[in-house]
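An example makes the point: we let one protein speak, the chain in one-letter code, the fold tokenised, and here it is:
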Amino acid sequence: MRHNTNAYRRAREATAAAGLSHAPFYPEGLLPVLQGTFAALADLELRYEIAREALEALCESEDAKQRYRAELAEVHREVSQSLRRYLAHLQGAGKPVRSSH
């Protein structure tokens, strides 16, 4: 198989031109906190869906289902909003900065 060295050279030059020196950097320690907050939001959504499905299976009366659905939705909304506010705070406090290299 014959290799196209011109294509390789162009790809390498393009990679170097758009290299890591232009990538944004967050303040030290912020990225793991952001990732943890996103993970907590994803976990919350999954647990909410599981709880809703369990509620449907466990409750016999429609009145009880509606009452528990409303309570579950309210708790979910409160926790979700709290995490989203925290995430917005983190994102506002940690605006990406460009490397000076």
User: Anything to note?
Assistant: The longest strand covers residues 24-25.
